[in-house]
Amino acid sequence: MDFEKKYPMTQRPNEYLVVQWTRGYKQVNVYFNDELIGSVQGAAKLLKGISLPSDLGTLTLKLSEKPVTLDVIVDGYHSRVNVSHPVKELKKTSTYFWIISAFALIAGGIDMGIFLEWSGVGTIVFSMNLIVFVLYILSAVFVGQGKPWGFYLGFAVFSFCTLIALLALMGGLVGGFILYIFMAVRIGGLVILIMNLKTANAAVRHLKYRDPVMEDLLDSKIRE
């Protein structure tokens, strides 16, 4: 074996697996308390992901693509050093909420143009759009910090606003080619958020456990 790395287990604070592998991940061995609990030969298997039975539960090994490194999952829980850890994946979704914030700003400007001549209504519409915009900004900030509730907040607000816009469009209250384009974009955005709900749910599961107290978790070279 050429390299070694410690993988702390999420559901077992301060306990970890030791993974050793050869160059190119041609062979990988997994140890727990100095006992071999899993071994895989062939990087192709790791690229697809492989699950092995163990006393700890199902042990899943998978090579991530960017960067190329090994992810270890024990009984459905990612090690916190995994590249594809749900909380890390959740942070990436903050980009969606920054885009939605910009989208809300543009949509708010269109709404103001539509309701500007309506006495009193313009002020109400402006206030509502401002609140929605602020909520999206808050969602983007807190999702970027790995807070699942930020995702749920942004998802709920976006879903509600999409429903209201759809009802208004179908009811004939508003219309126009541009608004139909915006609605199509909204629905596409909603689909993307729905697809990422599982990431937020997985992050909630993982955050129930405290981070382990570990010293050196970096890859270490066993031999030259």
Key words describing this protein structure:
single chain; 224 residues; alpha+beta; 2 domains; five-stranded antiparallel β-sheet; four-stranded antiparallel β-sheet; 7 helices; 9 strands; 20% strand; elongated; transmembrane; transmembrane helix
Radius of gyration: 24 Å
Low-pLDDT ranges: none
Subunit organisation of the chains:
single chain
What is the mean predicted local confidence, pLDDT?
85
Total domain units: 2
Class from helix and strand fractions: alpha+beta
Written description of the protein model:
Keywords: Membrane, Transmembrane, Transmembrane helix. This protein is of the alpha+beta class. It has two domains: 3-82; 86-208, no CATH class. Helix content is 50%, strand content 20%. The protein has seven helices and nine strands; from the N terminus they run E-E-E-E-H-E-E-E-E-H-H-H-H-H-H-E. The longest helix has 24 residues, at 121-144. It is elongated and about 75 Å long.
